[in-house]
Every structure is written in C-alpha cells, then in structure tokens.
Amino acid sequence: MKPAYLLLVIALLTGAALAQNPPTVTAQPNTVYVSAEGKFESAPDTALIQFNISAQEDSPKAAYDRAAQETEQVRQIMRTNGVDPKSAEIGFFSLQPVYDWKQPEKRRIIGYRVSNSVSLKLREFNKVGPIVQLLGAQEFNENVNLSYTLQDIDAAKLRAVEDAFQRARAEAATVAKAGGRALGELGYASVDTLEPIRPMYVPMTRSAMAGAAKPMAAPTEEFSPQKITVTARVSTVFALK
Question: What's the CATH code, domain 46-149?
C-alpha cells in the first residue's frame, strides 16, 4: 500500500561550490527539491591592459610637466599600433607631496609625485603583445597588468542559468521516476550566478627587457587567452504527480 503522501528532498551538488550557499527551502508534501549547478564557457573577447604613469620632481609643476610628457609617450605607443588614445580610460589622477621617510617626525617635503592610472580595452588581440611590451619598457611605468575578460557577461550568465536549470529538472525527473511518480510543474526557483575571476598576466619587467641581448617575443605571444567560465546555481521545487 502506498503512503498517503510522498516527501522527497534531494540536494544534488555538482562541480565546484559557489561563493553563496543555496537558500534554505522547506519542501512540502508531494514535491521534490533539487539544487544543481551549471556553467557556460567562452573564449574571452576583450583584453584589458592596466598600467600606471608616475613622475616625481622637486616641484608640483615639474612633476606635472614630466607626467604630461610621459603620457604623450603612451599616446604615441597607441597611435603606432593603430589604437586611438581616446579609447583609453583614466582611473585616477593624483598629485601628492613626498616626505622624507627617514625623518618622519619633521614632515620634510622632498618632492612631489604625480600618479595616473590608465586602462585600455582591446578586442584585436594581435595588438596586445606589442603594446604591452612597449609599455613595460617605459621607465615611468611601475607595473603593467594584462587580463582577459568577456564583455557581454550577462548573456553568458543566462546560458549558465539555462544549463543549471536543465540539470536540476533532469535530476528531479530521475528522483520522481525512482519514487514511482511523475514530475509536475515548477513551483519555486532561485538563481545565484558567480562571475569569473579574470586570469591575470604580468609581463616582463623593464629591467629584464633592458638587459636582453636582442628583441624578445612578448610574454603572452603564441599563447591562447584562458577561457572564461561563468557558473550558476539553480535551486528548484517541482510538484509530484
């Protein structure tokens, strides 16, 4: 004799866990609760180059003028490689006094420092290597970081959610069949997506490039950018027939 009702609760976790735990759901009689993870993998479509322009001089004007000259060098590097300087974005600009750290109690100013953070997005990957190499060779650049990303991340999230839901539905149908029941309508669903951490590459330092006997290939040359994986978790409650 079959029981008056059948309560099936299952939490199936697949793949790596997301940053947030799935919501707590109180399953009702004649329902099945399934939490599943899906993903969507895509090649990146955008390269992000981030670097700093810095200059230190005895006076604010001298520091500013030197930073302006260095910035013009950056513009020329972009023009040489067929990139419009207007496509670069400024993250911050600062002009600060530099104090004598050996005698901090006297607060003696020994100079002024201009810092400027710049980011450049490129879709033409063949331009990435030459630009990174030229930027890394400039003495005013403290660091040059290169990462790859997916510009249309929202579309990738939707694909990941779709994959997660299909997995959840298939698992729920399997449980229902094993219990001698049929899967009914969807009664509840929650979605949680996790954006990927951009893979970061740090190119060769200026000192290493200056010491090379002959021109060397860019550190990223001949390598393919790492694929972008977007993950989603869908928690569902289906009715049982």
Answer: 3.30.70.2970
pLDDT of residue 3: 38
For residue range 167-181, list pLDDT tens digits in order: 999 999 999 999 999
Which stretch of DSSP H or E encloses residue 197?
none
Q: Considering the entire predicted model, what is its pTM? A: 0.65
In this predicted structure, the answer to whether residue 209 has a pLDDT above a threshold of 70 is: no
Q: Can you name the residues that pair with 88 across neighbouring β-strands?
A: 120
Q: Which two tokens stand for residue 77?
A: 């590097």
CA angle, residues 240, 39, 148, in degrees to nearest 5? 160
What is the residue-averaged pLDDT of the chain?
A: 80
3-state helix, strand, coil in the chain (%, to 5): 30, 35, 35
The answer to whether 226 and 10 are in contact (CB under 8 A) is no
DSSP 93-148: EEEEEEE-TTSGGGT-EEEEEEEEEEEEEES-GGGHHHHHHHHHT-TTEEEEEEEE
Could you give the residue range(s) of every CATH 3.30.110.170 domain in the chain?
A: 8-43+152-197+230-240
Contact between 141 and 132 under an 8 Å Cβ cutoff? The reply is: no
Beta bridge partners of 194: 231
Contact 137, 129 (CB under 8 A): no
Fold adopted by 8-43+152-197+230-240: Translation Initiation Factor IF3 (3.30.110)
